[in-house]
């Protein structure tokens, strides 16, 4: 007899949503199994029962897809937007499989966004406890002080909670603008923008250039590519390292890191 699994587990493994979000979909009556509305607590047989969300079939088997997308500004990180805004799903329509964003990148930001149909992979990479490093190139105005750099590297209280220590260095400095490289180890919503706002800095441009060992490189805006086997191995290794650090009580970037003034420049 084929083994059944909870529907929220199947949806998460298929990349539709996290288990918590899948439970919300079930509570809202948006999930069907073999044409009948499913409920929280119901089970199904993967690869046999027909699951659908909002009438769209859920693919529970087949090839796993892992993509790197260069998200342009103006696109929201979702598959569908009730306000009619452009979604990243429009940029990967020709993939042939339904893929989902791993984490988020806000509408006004650009750069590297991972997408996949592997729900377990997405949850492991995006979960805050894994501390997967995310690297950003941030242009701020008008200038930045030593004290502001120290605050970014050691943490800033935002909405009643201090941000995790980050790595920051100056890449380029001109009259009226400074380009920073900031590495974060947590996934709070619009974290860099909120940090800069708290410090009185205007963010002119924010671009994610890496997620763990996966780099954006020269990928054109609006285009995507498949992750290489080497990138997947390296990313999986970083996730496992983060899990071990979390389980042992360690944290990444514990003291924060910043280059001294003598170390500034255009180095990447």
Structural features, described:
The protein has 268 residues and is α+β, with helices and mostly antiparallel strands. It has helices at residues 7-13, 19-27, 119-126, 146-154, 191-198, 229-247, and strands at 5-6, 31-33, 36-37, 43-44, 51-53, 56-57, 66-71, 100-101, 110-116, 134-141, 157-158, 161-162, 167-174, 177-184, 202-211, 214-215, 224-226, 257-258. The termini are far apart. It is elongated, with a radius of gyration of 20 Å. The protein folds into three domains: 5-57, Structural Genomics Hypothetical 15.5 Kd Protein In mrcA-pckA Intergenic Region, Chain A (Roll); 66-127 and 219-243, Alpha-Beta Plaits (2-Layer Sandwich); 133-211, Alpha-Beta Plaits (2-Layer Sandwich). Residues 260-268 have low confidence and may be disordered. It is 22% helix and 28% strand. The strands form four sheets. Strands 7, 8, 9, 10, 13, 14, 15, 16, 17 and 18 form a ten-stranded mixed sheet that branches. Strands 3-2-5-6 form a four-stranded antiparallel sheet, with no helix packed on it. Strands 1-4 form a two-stranded antiparallel ribbon. The protein has six helices and 18 strands.
Question: How would you briefly describe this protein structure?
Answer:
Residues 238-261 have a biased composition (Basic and acidic residues). The protein is of the alpha+beta class. It has helices spanning 7-13, 19-27, 119-126, 146-154, 191-198, 229-247; strands at residues 5-6, 31-33, 36-37, 43-44, 51-53, 56-57, 66-71, 100-101, 110-116, 134-141, 157-158, 161-162, 167-174, 177-184, 202-211, 214-215, 224-226, 257-258.
């Amino acid at each position: 007899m084929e083994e059944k699994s909870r529907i929220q587990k199947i949806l998460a493994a298929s990349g539709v949503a996290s288990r918590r979000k899948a439970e919300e979909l079930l509570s809202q009556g948006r999930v069907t199994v073999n044409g009948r509305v499913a409920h929280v607590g119901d089970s199904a047989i993967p690869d046999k029962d027909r699951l659908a969300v909002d009438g769209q079939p859920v693919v529970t088997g087949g090839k796993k897809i892992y993509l790197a997308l260069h998200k342009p500004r103006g696109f929201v990180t979702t598959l569908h937007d009730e306000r009619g805004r452009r979604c990243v799903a429009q940029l990967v329509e020709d993939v042939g499989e339904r893929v989902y964003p791993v984490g988020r990148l806000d509408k006004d930001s650009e750069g590297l966004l991972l997408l996949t149909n592997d729900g377990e992979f997405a949850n492991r990479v995006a979960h805050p406890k894994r501390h997967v490093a995310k690297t950003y190139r941030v242009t701020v105005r008008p200038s930045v002080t030593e004290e502001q750099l120290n605050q970014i590297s050691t943490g800033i209280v935002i909405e009643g909670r201090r941000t995790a220590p980050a790595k920051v260095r100056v890449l380029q400095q001109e009259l009226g603008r400074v380009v920073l490289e900031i590495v974060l180890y947590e996934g709070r919503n619009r974290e860099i923008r909120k940090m800069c706002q708290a410090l009185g800095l205007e963010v002119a441009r924010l671009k994610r250039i890496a997620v763990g060992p996966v780099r954006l490189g020269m990928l054109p805006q609006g285009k995507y590519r498949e992750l290489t086997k080497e990138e997947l191995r390296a990313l999986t290794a970083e996730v496992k390292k983060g899990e071990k650090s979390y389980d042992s009580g360690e944290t990444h970037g514990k003291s924060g890191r910043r280059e001294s003034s003598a170390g500034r420049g255009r180095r990447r």
